[in-house]
Amino acid sequence: MKLMYNLWYRFGTPPWVGGARRELVRLVEQGSLLPGRALDLGCGEGDNAIFLALHGFEVTAVDFAPAAIRKAEAKASVAGADVTFLVDDLSRLQHVDGQFDVLVDYGTFDDLTAAQRAAYCTQVVPLARPGAKFLMWNFEWETSLWERLAARLIPFGNLTLAPGYVEATFSGAFDVQRIAGETGLTGWPKGWAAYLMTKRA
Question: Which residue in 106, 128, 148, 181 could disulfide with 193, CB within 3.0 to 4.6 Å?
Answer without folding.
Answer: 181
